[in-house]
Amino acid sequence: MPERRLLDTTDLFAALPADALADLRAQAQRRTYARNDVLFRQGDSSSELFVVDRGRIAIAQRSGDGRESVVAVLDAGGMFGELGLFDDAPRSADARALIDSTVVVLGYDPVRGLLRERPELLWVIVRMLAGRLRATDEALADAVFLDVPARTAKRLLDLAAGRDRFALPVTQEELAGIVGASRERVNKAISLFTRLGWLAVEGRNQYRILDRAAMEDRATL
Question: What is d(CA 49, CA 82) in angstroms, rounded to the nearest whole number?
Fold first, then answer.
């Protein structure tokens, strides 16, 4: 099935021999979620990891007063929920479908059995976790050293993924969570970019980058 073949392409499972991969495929499940459905909440017990098959999943943390900070936005092929595989600790963040989405779900037990048989695969996981730690370090540095317009320019460029015309894949509130600022301050930054002629708003959540060099420069200041 296509959703099970998705396991073949993830960093964790791509190097597996055919028989081991077949065993995991047989135990994988496919689940579908509507927009804004919650897959799990911060503090929930953990027993499964997930791979995005279709759609878009937000990983977010909430403050005591209910404000949301979006830690990551995952598209097809993105893996999440694997931290509990190693410590059985509760979920460290919420996972929510930003749009109608389908995920492939795999329980921890078969993965743990595989890692006991093939401990060299732990290096793949170490590389994955190191990449996430680097991304966290970068986000912390941005929060300290970059102002809101700089962080907004940087996140817009990330979401554009090299395209000049792009549809914002998140709501304004979710963009604010990714930037780490209020919606009002992020909207002011976007308005500033449009006045300067760097960015054009061409419809609901539709943007066009007019001066990429200027946006890239502002993203570092």
Answer: 5
Give residue 35's identity as a one-letter amino acid code: R
Mean pLDDT over residues 44-65, rounded? 86
CATH topology agreement for domains 2-142 and 146-218: no
**CATH (residue range 2-142):** 2.60.120.10
The CA–CA distances, whole Å, from 188 to 10, 113, 179, 184, 198 equal: 39, 51, 13, 6, 14
The architecture in CATH of the region 146-218 reads Orthogonal Bundle (1.10)
Q: How far is CA 144 from the centre of its chain?
A: 21
Cut 0.85: pTM above it: no
pLDDT digits (tens, 9 = 90+) for 14-47: 767 777 788 888 888 899 999 889 999 999 999 9
**Residue written as tokens 């502002």?**
218
Rounded Cα gap, residues 177 and 169, in angstroms: 13
List Cα–Cα distances, 119 to 16, 114, 137, in angstroms. 12, 8, 28
**Alpha-carbon span 168 to 204, nearest angstrom:** 9
